[in-house]
Amino acid sequence: MTHLATAVLARAVAFDVPEMNCFIRRGRMVGRKRLDVMVPVAIGDGEGMSAIIVKDAHARTVSSIAEEIRAAASDNRAGTESKISQNKYLLNRIPWPLRRPVFRLLKWITVDLGFEIKALGLSADSFGSFVVSDIGSFGLQTGMTALMPAAKVPAVIVLGKVEEKPVVRRGEIVIRTMLPLTGTFDHRIVDGLQIGKLARGIKRNFRKPEWLDEIPTEELESCLFAARE
Question: Which of 46, 70, 154, 205 has the fewest CB atoms lying closer than 10 Å?
């Protein structure tokens, strides 16, 4: 479900609310040059978490996204983590009184000034355009999460546990498979209008899963860049 939801959400952002693909730099909104999605994954028999960045997720098929996440998760569990995942261990070794000043310095260099620190794998795009977190795999029905200020993402979307539930359809009670989705948004970037557009895009994409295994056409691709300009 994580693979499917990543494709659904990426295309909803790209083609329904492309203005959401940005971040705040010194009080101004800055559009991103690509649409990447961060997907946290469990490692070490569920004792820790790592992160995978799916690049250009809106222009990928759900099959290729699934293959990349599986392969990267396998590498992370084998001890070959990405630089951004390794950074958390580096920061943990910094003495506590110095941790916040170091953190703010890195944020100032990468986000405020716009420079990339290649040695650490840090940049304004290190956490992608938004985050998709699957807590349903841990048996949790639903949950909310806080935005990470340093991540500079406009939204964190949480997937709950997929369950069969009774719903009303055409005046009758029927059983349907339900996926709970919750989102935390940066209201400096989006408000109810954009969130509503995102919700409609999500519903449409889930109803047409066959589209998710097709590479978007150039016409659809142009929507993302035209809106950014």
Answer: 46
